[in-house]
């Protein structure tokens, strides 16, 4: 069982991995902790936003919307590879997912198919939203992919996890398709190589 990093530890981990970070408002204390526990944490979840325009994307992920209050993640990765920290603690990003997937992440084993939504993922995962329309056509610039790799590796390195602790929203919650445009196997391989360094 891993307690979450402190907000300062999280920031330090990202910076140590060479991530370009922008701190948005009082991100360290912006969370949904009043709705339930934050931790123990077991992995990193990657999403796409279905939005266009960095400023609008960051604002949406920080504030949320009427049906889903923010923060909607911990960090927003914009097209230029900048990571905008918008919240820390419990965030509305993972929702309910498959308990068997969570057990596989904890054991760092291959993931089973996600066929249930019976477990609170907001408690157990760091979440990064990545600016992309999610239509399979919107490009993923190399700067953005590099940042996704770095944030995932940063969290894994700090917790002593392998690349198997990095999952996509689509691997957690039935019906989700994000992130669309690259495979999680490809991303995990990049994270695995980075963690060797």
From TrEMBL:
<feature type="domain" description="N-acetylmuramoyl-L-alanine amidase">
    <location>
        <begin position="27"/>
        <end position="180"/>
    </location>
</feature>
<dbReference type="InterPro" id="IPR002502">
    <property type="entry name" value="Amidase_domain"/>
</dbReference>
<dbReference type="GO" id="GO:0009253">
    <property type="term" value="P:peptidoglycan catabolic process"/>
</dbReference>
<dbReference type="InterPro" id="IPR036505">
    <property type="entry name" value="Amidase/PGRP_sf"/>
</dbReference>
<protein>
    <submittedName>
        <fullName>N-acetylmuramoyl-L-alanine amidase</fullName>
    </submittedName>
</protein>
<dbReference type="GO" id="GO:0008745">
    <property type="term" value="F:N-acetylmuramoyl-L-alanine amidase activity"/>
</dbReference>
<dbReference type="Pfam" id="PF01510">
    <property type="entry name" value="Amidase_2"/>
</dbReference>
């Amino acid at each position: 069982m891993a307690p979450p990093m402190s907000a300062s530890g999280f920031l330090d981990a990202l910076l140590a991995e060479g991530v370009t970070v922008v701190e948005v408002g009082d991100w360290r204390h912006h969370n949904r902790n009043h709705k339930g526990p934050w931790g123990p944490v077991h992995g990193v979840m990657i999403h796409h936003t279905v939005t266009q325009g960095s400023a609008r994307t960051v604002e949406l992920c920080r504030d949320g919307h009427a049906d889903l209050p923010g923060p909607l993640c911990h960090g927003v990765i914009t097209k230029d590879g900048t990571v905008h920290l918008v919240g820390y603690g419990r965030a509305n990003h993972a929702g309910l997912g498959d308990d068997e997937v969570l057990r596989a992440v904890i054991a760092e084993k291959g993931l089973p198919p996600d066929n249930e939504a019976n477990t609170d993922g907001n408690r157990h995962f760091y979440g990064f939203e990545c600016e992309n329309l999610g239509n399979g056509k919107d490009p993923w610039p190399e700067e953005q992919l590099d940042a996704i790799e770095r944030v995932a590796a940063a969290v894994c390195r700090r917790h002593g996890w392998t690349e198997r602790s990095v999952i996509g929203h689509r691997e957690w919650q039935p019906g989700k398709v994000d992130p669309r445009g690259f495979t999680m196997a490809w991303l995990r391989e990049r994270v695995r190589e980075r963690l060797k360094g």
